[in-house]
Design goal:
Length: 193
């Protein structure tokens, strides 16, 4: 399921960068919906498989799309738009999944249940990626807000640790789960009437 959610997310970054004048993703073969172009074999395959095997939930990542900020129209504002494209694609895809869940509800309940689960996960990933902590997409908004690069680089050194502490030692993870469930129910309600 992670592949299904990672591909549109990474493609959206590549598409936005390309539209803003950066040909780096196109040159690296990332302007495609081919899942193999966006796979990080550790983050998309190995880590999720091990976590699933040991019943530890779901965690993973796709291969980051490289961009050249100096090629982007709008500079750091363009970089922020490219960063926002990924989480925005998760929200758009959530509506697609809700439509699939609604259509399949009576004829293929198992498909409907899978689509509803993917819908909730897609919304959770959108929220999670908006956290302003490197390497997450939301961190690019710090650069667009003109946070000094030196401070951003220092923050990047501890990014994964900050995410881990934030998700395990605060109510952040629970809040994001509750918010994504509530949003998923709302979107499903639009389709199920």
């Amino acid at each position: 399921m992670l592949w299904m959610l990672t591909v549109p997310h990474e493609f959206a970054h590549a598409w936005a960068a390309d539209k803003l004048g950066d040909d780096t993703p196109r040159n690296e073969g990332r302007l495609t919906l081919n899942p193999l172009a966006h796979v990080d074999w550790i983050g998309t395959v190995l880590v999720p498989a091990l976590m699933s095997l040991f019943g530890s939930g779901l965690f993973g990542w796709g291969r980051a799309v490289n961009t050249s900020p100096w090629k982007l129209r709008g500079g750091l504002t363009g970089l922020a738009l490219v960063a926002l494209a990924g989480p925005f694609s998760n929200v758009i895809f959530a509506f697609v999944l809700a439509g699939i869940a609604a259509l399949a509800a009576t004829v293929a309940p198992a498909v409907a249940e899978l689509a509803a689960h993917a819908l909730r996960l897609s919304l959770f990933l959108a929220l999670f990626n908006m956290l302003p902590v490197p390497p997450l997409d939301g961190s690019k908004l710090l650069l667009a807000a003109r946070l000094p690069v030196r401070v951003y680089e220092e923050l990047s050194r501890f990014g994964f640790l900050l995410i881990l502490v934030g998700m395990t030692s605060t109510g952040l993870g629970h809040w994001m789960s509750a918010a994504s469930w509530a949003a998923a129910r709302g979107i499903l309600g639009l389709f199920l009437g």
